[in-house]
Amino acid sequence: MRYSDTHKAETRKKVVQAAAAAVRAKGPDGVGVAEIMAEAGLTHGGFYAHFPNKEALVAAAIEEAFDQTRRRFARLTQAMSPREALITFVEAYVSKDHRNNPQRGCPISTLSNDLPRQGPIVRAAFDAGVANLIARLEDWLPAQDRTARHGLASSLMAEMAGAVALSRAVSNTAISEQLLEASRVRIKERAGYSEPDVAKLSPRL
Question: Where is 96: in which H helix or E strand?
Answer without folding.
Answer: helix 96-100
